[in-house]
Amino acid sequence: MKFSARLAIAALTLAAVPAALACTDPVSVCVNFRKGSFPLMTNGQPAAVLIEASADSAVQMASANFAGDLERVGGKAAQQVTAAASATGALVIAGVVGHSPVIDDLARAGKIQVSDLPGQWEAYRQIVVENPFPNVPRALVIAGSDRRGAVFGLYDLSGKIGVSPWYWFADVPVARQANLYLTAGSRRDQSKVRYRGFFINDEAPAFSTWSQEKFGGANSKMYAHVFELLLRMKGNYLWPAMWAPRAFNDDDPQNMVLADAMGVVMGTSHHEPMTRAQAEWHRNKEQGVTGGKWDYTVNAGNLRQFWRGGIERMVSKGDGRGYEALITVGMRGDGDEPMSEGTATQLLESIVAAQRDIIRDVTGRPADQQPQVWALYKEVQDYYDHGMKVPDDVTLLFADDNWGQIRRLPTEDLSRRGGFGVYYHFDYVGGPRNYKWLNTNQIEKTWQQMDLAWRRGARTLWIVNVGDIKPMEFPLGFFMAQAWDPEAMTLARLTNYPEEWARQTFGARNAQAIASLVTRYSQLAALRKPELLDADSFPRKYQRGAVPDGRNFSGLMKRWQVLEADLRMVKRDIPVAQQDAFFQLVEHPIIALANLYNLYHAVAWNRYYAGHDDAGGANTNTSAAAAEAAYRRDREITDQYHALNGGKWNGMMLQTHIGYTTWQQPDKQVMPEVRHVPDSKTGVIDAPAKADGASVADVPLAVEAAGFTRAHDAKGLSWRLIPNLGIGLGAVTAFPQGQPSSSAGDAIYLEYEVKLPAAGDKIVQLHLLPTLETTGGVDIRIGVSMDDGPAQTLSMRLTPSPGPPTLQEQRNWEKAVINNEFVLEAKFPGVAAGKRVIKVWRIDDNALLTQVVIKGK
């Protein structure tokens, strides 16, 4: 081994000590022995792992993976035994209560207490046991209430000893540890959201190209890695890649076999009912299916036969249980289009009734004994709002607006058997513009929306569209962590999560600095999706009379430059072994999007100078050259990504992101048009702009929402800051979420003391992040007043009124999601100069205030 490599591994070992080293709580991971501790690793030698021959395949595979994790950490192979009698020394045992002879014997002998597990969903206990067997002085027992409970109990420890769920999917290296101990005692954990997972979607050209090159397609060899990633994040549910011509069950029959064997619950997307991929309909392979229109009013017989084939395949396992699935019911138009205009809710109800008849007939059990979900996506929610009846046992899956704002949440009886869920988006193909290339999601917004969903009763199913999986590693990990236990993901833990994630991924040494990088990147990326960027996205420079909030190219470029400089500082301290992971998770999104800003910033100045260049064309040519260099640099950055780890991720960054002119991508990158002036000299981009002559009284006074002078809490509600949400210090809203509307009499408001330099008519702007009214209404209301005057009620209407959205409503929504902001205004005539108090009043839930701005003479 080369000396430099030894140094890199040594640095990595020092930097990546596992975070869970409290050594106080039961079954916590420590590097030092304490009385009663279980020796998981001693001088690099792991404890043995018992894998019972009678165990469920999911438990067997997870146990074998856990043994592999111990070897990754300690450097020596963990012995795998099949019988407790043959074990000597420390032993790890994982199994399901009632199905594991070893665990059941220990329970009968009174050595372990697991009476709180049977009948529970995905619960587990991790227990340190003294003298369980003659040659085993101490054992670690992981007892699951079911097979996934045992699996999650194993992978929970894998994460705590330093094996990231992303060890394969993002090349996160594992730090070596010579000694690891688990403190004595017992701890219990359990999933809170029943079904938790993600949707691989919009996967061409990136994921599709990569999977074809590396595995020959979206087959079981590829899905083995996807399933493992899902389970290591304690997820249990997957909507597979489905862009034509992909069909999960038909492309490789081993796909569903492996999913079930590993313990993954399979589903299909919102427009693919009865376990069928849409591509299967067009392949027309099923015997007796003649195809025809995807229209139940004219082709019901063929559709019913097609759906029956899907359920027959699901039960073909022949064990009386079938392959584990959550069946999507309902119907949308072919190719994920709306059904025919004016489709009656009665038709959809009859379709679902027919599908449930098929489920009952094929499975031989009542339909309500097979889990089902009905996705209320887009227009289907309108049918639900207009009275569509949904069987009580079917999970109702509400959706966001495809841009991160949940459209609807439960208002009816929360005791309905099927419960409720949310389908969320980190990636989307559609209007006003695709966004697929990079992660542009703030975990702070995800947390706020999903916390609201949890508190309002959407607790059965959480699923998120992640596009190609990469590069959504950071927000996906967060989404799955929140889904496991939404109550544990408090505002305080959200605030600490980036550093917690950085510590678990890269070690403690650079955790704080890396957390700052990913947080600041997320703020800038969420301001405007890269596919929406162009030379006209922002003013080139701040001009007096505009809002001084950094929404101009000059200010944004400075933020990107500082971020890149900080990135370079941190990168110098990243060990060689972590460089590939660091590039994927931290460096690439920053340098790629910063470069895109460089490109359009240069184009903006080029177009300005093309008509205003007083340097004889020098500035025009310099800005053109800068733009062209940035365009070339974009390809270099992509090539660098594709070359990582011997080309492991070749193809994953093929998504087009330069040259959008409509909602859909161009087939290839398009260099923006720039002008050149022949035989000119060089110049300097971003020359100082001339002042516009406006007086100081014309300059808006802007106050961050976080900068309130006083907060007035009442009625069990209190104002809290969600740090970093938005482009500034954060967004302020009242907690807990999900509470009824307030009135002025409730006296829940914020005070902002300001000093106005001049008297006159004033406009107070409230800058809000986009959110939607989720109870069936249309407006999110908020109040504003000045001094002791009456409050004016302002309304943000991004939810359309009943029926199709008006043109103005559509424009409001598009403007809000493009800018990631919506501004409300209140007029105050004849305001005196001097100290004034602006009050912002809580009226409706889900209003996220980021800034207060006072404008006027």
Task: Give your account of this protein's structure.
The chain has 857 residues and is an alpha/beta fold. The protein folds into four domains: 14-190, Chitobiase/beta-hexosaminidase domain 2-like (Chitobiase, domain 2), CATH 3.30.379; 195-489, TIM Barrel (Alpha-Beta Barrel); 512-647, Up-down Bundle (Methane Monooxygenase Hydroxylase, Chain G, domain 1); 696-855, Jelly Rolls (Sandwich), CATH 2.60.120. It is 34% helix and 18% strand. The chain is built from 21 helices and 29 strands. Strands 13-12-11-18-17-16-15-14 form an eight-stranded parallel β-sheet. Strands 5-4-6-8-7-10 form a six-stranded mixed β-sheet, sandwiched between helices. A five-stranded antiparallel β-sheet has the order 20-23-28-25-26, with no helix packed on it. The longest helix has 34 residues, at 579-612. It starts with a helix and ends with a strand. 51% of the residues are buried.
